[in-house]
Amino acid sequence: MTALRLVQKTGRGLLNAIPLVIGVLVLNFTLIQLLPGDAAEVFAGEAGAATRETMELLRIRFGVDQPVLDQLIIYFYNLARLNLGFSVRYNAPVADLILSRLSMTVLLKLAALALALAVGVAIGVAMAVWRGSWLDRFLSALVLLFYSTPGFWIGLMLVVLLSINLGWFPPEGYRTIGSGLKGWAYAADVARHMVLPVLATATFFVAIFARLIRTAMIDISRQEFVRTAKAKGLTPAQVNIKHILRNALIPLTTVTGMQLGTLLGGSVVIETIFGWPGLGRLTYEAVMAREYVVLLGILLMSSLVVILANLLTDLLQTWLDPRIKA
Amino acid sequence: MSGPEQKLLEVDRLSVSFGRRENELRAVDALSFSIGAGEAVALVGESGCGKSTTAHAIMGLLPDGATRQGAVRFAGTELLGASRRTLQDIRGDKIGMIFQEPNSSLNPVYRVGDQIAEALRRHRSLSRRAARTRTLELLELVRLPHPSRQIDAYPHQLSGGQRQRAMIAMAICCQPKLLIADEPTTALDATIQAQIMELIDGLRRELSMALLLISHDLRLVARWTDRVVVMHHGEKLEDVAARELFETARHPYTLGLIAASVGLDRRLHYRKTTLAEVRTTREPQGGYAFAIHQPHRVADLPPASSETLLSVENLVAEYQTGSGTVRAVDDVSFTIKAGESLGLVGESGCGKSTLSKAIMRLIPSASGRIALRGRDITRLEGDELKRARRPMQMVFQDPYGSLNPRRSVGDILNATLVVNGVASGAERQQKIKAMLDQVGLLPSAIDRYPHEFSGGQRQRIGIARALIVEPEFVVCDEPVSALDVSIQAQILNLLVELKASLGLSYLFISHDLGVVQYISDRVMVMKDGVIIEEADHGTIWTSPRQAYTRELIAAVG
Description:
The complex is a heterodimer of chains A (326) and B (557). With 326 residues, chain A is an all-alpha fold. Chain A has two domains: 90 residues, no CATH class; 202 residues, Orthogonal Bundle (MetI-like fold). Chain A has 13 helices and two strands; from the N terminus they run ααααββααααααααα. A two-stranded antiparallel ribbon of chain A has the order 1-2. In chain A, strand 1 and strand 2 form a beta hairpin. In chain A, helix 1 packs antiparallel against helix 13 and helix 12 packs antiparallel against helix 13. The longest helix of chain A is centred in the middle third of the chain and has 39 residues. Chain A is globular, with a radius of gyration of 24 Å. Chain B is α/β, with parallel strands linked by helices. Helices cover 34% and strands 26% of the residues of chain B. Chain B has 19 helices and 22 strands. In chain B, 46% of the residues are buried. The model of chain B has no long low-confidence stretch (mean pLDDT 89).
């Protein structure tokens, strides 16, 4: 019964997503058409010069010789056959291009999210349990610092300190080029490259989660069932973790779900600083090159990821809060 | 009652205060009482008298900012200075506690059975399986229906009474020596109240527990305890045997509370008598003086006329839930004559509030007809509805929630007049002053905000807001349910006085039979959206026709 309703809920969510995705694609296609210049002009511009004939050929090659509406119809026709198109610029199918970048983004951002959750919740619990103490005040100041300092600046400082001065972690890239590492050694190498971008991304979210958990736990600690838990003779640790924190996880899920969408869109600044081949940089490059095939592919993928993240959040909340019906 | 044997609980000159220095608020002031093993003692008093604070002090559950003095000895152990560890071991094991709100006193994310098992396993080394078996026994003991199924239910899947049963099972799981029950039935319907008190009383005898019952309800404590400690402003006023509470109480405050209460058995009616009011005045030395004041009866209470003011015919109101349409008001018909006061009683969820909202056109009716002075208002919209609705006003239950906290009393009343088309500013000011005077508030109230008033004063503001547009018909939806007995008497007297001076007709909705008995000329009983019985105030209490009405009367009698 519940399993069936869960499936129904998932199905309904996905069905509702279809018009949304089409809307996103049409809107962004229109926006990119409004920009001056097309992919062929940018390409020719980078080459320095081009004859009229070369331009014609380039336009045919990029597919921008057709009327605008036809381009969109052709794009949707291909999409229906699960073909995202071919990027002339990168000389690769758009799907492959995005998937390779997406996996790098997901790796980086999920690691950052996991770290931010672990550290943020720990700090939040400490602040709530010892609220008003010097520890609370110290952590609050730290969290405020994390909240107000831009990630890229923290990133740059981390590079200066941990990479240039101490030499502990590589400052950029995602692997040691030409090392030919395989298996666990390769994984360890990627992990070492991930440390700095993960830290730079996580700090802001540590602040968000810590503040959220602190507020939620203080709110919940005033609820009557907490008094019941104390009246049962439970220890403060049992009351704080099993009764207060457990209920604070419900608002945490909502916020995490909202952040998950933004996180997976990638971040141009962090990826640029650390030379990380993620979706953010690809998006930026696609816009600058006016290559709408790539851009629409990215947008399609991102909207799917956001929808998936929302769906996951819904399911997680249903699981965490028995009052929500599946 | 004091024997030579050691008392189970001895509270000795207990004082509790919150805040520091000039902001210090003394909630409990040198309170002493004791409870013998197996004895049932009540702490009774109005809100803010310190009865709950006393219970929390005994359990060591006071908030961090509280300062405590005196002594609380439980079975020879001093609790006030005891270590956290000692207190944690005593709580839930030697002393169990149940609270007022069964809705919020259980953790919403855990199954009921798991919450009981958690308390068991905290104090007894039991395996998971053994704890579950014991939990099931406990749920049977508190007579929760279908225990083997309900053990896996979440709190929101149980009714209020069932949740309170689960709370009781949790509190007695380790067979405590003392059970503290803080207003255990206040949030429940009358019929459920009686069942829960019977259960607590039965368990007390079966498990030979002592009981500390905390309540505002004199009748309840007189019926279910051995001894009653009456409290006011943190102080004990008297300590009397419960059986003789109504006969031997000496203290003027206790006598005042008895006189002000509107129990069904007292057969009070507004056309015959006013309600006594307890007047408390603070003496310059810091003490309190108490006096009973019986207002004069309003002489010229006209009998209800034969003219029909409001008629409701075959009214149906529905609302949608996840699982379908619920018919909250099902084919209801009645009339109210001009100058009449019609009482509507029923338990929570019976549809009485939905009915009142449908009459006020605050929610749509699915079918039926509402006519005010012969004019059909069921389908009016816009300006027409606004004009037609003007002679009808509403007074709500919650004097805290129904006034905008960011607007002064003058603004609230002024806005009501503006909406109802009183154009001249001077006229509005004059009406506001006159209205405040009529409901017994000082003119200075105009510039003050709702939070600056007490609960009773706020209800006076709510009444002023309803009456300032000079209605003929007022729906009072549980107007005194959130108020203390002494304040309740004042508000009921005020409503009667205003009815006479302004020629009002009331639809008076309440779950409290005593209140409805006092203020109604005619009474309707509602159950599951249907009016099951309607009779004159003289006959319904003495010869009810329906079994359900008899059940309601028996539950409070």
